[in-house]
Design a protein that fits this description.
With about 450 residues, the chain is of the alpha+beta class. About 30% of the residues lie in helices and about 20% in strands. The protein contains 16 helices and 26 strands. Strand 7 and strand 8 form a beta hairpin. One of its GO terms (cellular component) is Swr1 complex.
């Protein structure tokens, strides 16, 4: 089918990834938040990617961050609409204008693009109805298909096979990049175990015959938001107080963290890698005019190897904090929390085992051999290989664990899978049009088409 007029929006809690289906260029990426900061001139509000503009957001100290999603649920369409408008009708800053894809016909009617949208797993029905209402009545899209991210993953066979790896008989990691796709009578993989670790939380989602097996879905509170809070506490306790610098600590998390390659205990006994992060300085930016974007950054930057610290700047030298934070999602029992960070004691491997125990025995080996990691937390170096080794140790010896993860771009796995889904007949058969929406109403779209109630 021609998918040139289908808009894809992966509406994440932390960032929005969006673009037109079939476009070979990288998707547009925008922060899904509004930031308020106080300056000598008054309050400053920054929308989306404006938070990275040091001329607008001069100081990140005590910045108040407001997101449309709370606990993964889209609770505020007032904020979300503002951010969508910034993304979709902003050719100057985002290089995208949805008006270019709206067709005005000779008979006076208007044809808007179709929409494929991601939605939170087990999204509350009343909140889901709000999404349908906004999509059809405010943005007037011609049709809508919305689903949790995991539902799109089985359609991206080429990327799954390209990024797959497993352990050989000598416990060496083997990449499956040279293998060819198996022939199938469907456009999707029938069995898949998707692990989605995003900003708010982590889900383990089994897919059986192309549908989510909701009874076996498991959730953990560990996510990017938790990592930022944990790292903030470690740095504030051991180095310098950054308790009011959430945006800076979040940037440190993205640029510096790595997972222990073998085990947390072995990594503690090794000589640790030291990474030096230069903290932002508002006075330094005002007193010096630089061409270097890193020096002008309002969130600091990672010092390169053998690079000298600029005079007048302050830096952090981080060691064991860099792998202690990612370890919390794998082995929370080995990491000591304080009372404010004490969450679920279930590590990711245990969570996967719980999910598998609720699946039919005959397909458990199929699920284990078709694992896909998605979400920004799997951009952390060594995370994919560490999960592979840990999971193989905890599975029966005759089961072969295979994991797919597009490292460095794991947060885009869903978007590229949505692009593949837009080319299929399944998309044409399952989307709902504006005419369907106005004929049947909100309850029908939630209970009969997109809501998880229809599958339980």
């Amino acid at each position: 089918m021609d998918n040139s007029n289908v808009l894809l929006i992966d509406n994440g809690s932390y960032k929005i990834k969006y673009g037109i289906a079939g476009d070979e260029s990288a998707p547009k990426i925008c922060h899904n938040s509004i930031v308020k900061s106080k300056t000598s001139y008054g309050e400053i509000y920054c929308l989306g990617n404006q938070i990275e503009n040091s001329k607008l957001l001069q100081s990140t100290t005590n910045a108040f961050i407001r997101r449309p999603k709370e606990f993964g649920m889209l609770t505020s369409w007032e904020i979300q609409s503002e951010i969508w408008d910034y993304c979709l009708y902003n050719p100057k800053e985002m290089g995208f204008d949805l008006n270019e894809y709206i067709e005005h016909r000779n008979d006076g009617t208007v044809s808007c693009p179709h929409l494929i949208l991601t939605e939170t797993m087990l999204h509350m029905p009343e909140l889901s109805k709000n999404t349908d209402e906004v999509v059809f009545e405010e943005y007037a899209f011609d049709s809508l298909f919305k689903s949790p991210s995991a539902n799109f993953i089985p359609f991206n066979r080429s990327l799954i096979n390209k990024t797959q790896c497993y352990l050989d008989s000598n416990d060496n990691i083997v990449n499956n990049s040279g293998s060819q796709e198996e022939e199938s009578d469907t456009s999707f993989n029938r069995f898949q175990l998707v692990i989605d670790s995003g900003f708010e939380c982590t889900y383990v989602i089994p897919i059986i015959n192309g549908c989510i097996h909701y009874e076996a879905v498991r959730k953990s509170n560990f996510g990017g938001k938790y990592f930022t809070g944990f790292l903030k506490n470690l740095i504030s306790y051991k180095h310098i107080d950054l308790s009011q610098e959430t945006l800076v600590v979040n940037k440190i998390k993205e640029q510096c963290l790595y997972a222990a390659p073998d085990s947390f205990i072995k990594q503690l006994q090794k000589e640790n890698i030291v990474k030096e992060y230069v903290l932002p300085s508002e006075e330094f930016r005002f007193e010096n005019n630089h061409v270097d974007d890193r020096l002008d950054s309002n969130m600091g930057y990672l010092l390169r190897e053998n690079e000298k610290l600029p005079e007048g700047m302050v830096s952090l030298k981080l060691k064991e904090e860099l792998y202690t934070v990612p370890e919390s999602i794998l082995s929370p029992d080995k990491v000591h929390f304080d009372s404010s960070l004490n969450m679920s004691s279930h590590g990711l491997i245990e969570l996967i085992q719980q999910s598998l125990n609720l699946c039919p025995d005959i397909i458990k080996p199929l699920l284990v051999s078709n694992i896909v990691l998605i979400g920004g937390n799997f951009n952390i170096p060594n995370m994919k290989n560490r999960i592979l080794r840990e999971l193989q140790l905890n599975m029966p010896t005759e089961w072969n664990v295979r994991i797919s993860c597009d490292e460095d771009k794991s947060e885009l796995f869903t978007y590229y899978s949505m692009n593949e889904f837009s080319k299929t007949n399944e998309y044409l058969q399952t989307r709902i049009t504006r005419e369907d929406y106005f004929e049947h109403g909100l309850d029908w779209t939630t209970k009969k088409r997109f809501g998880y109630q229809a599958f339980m």
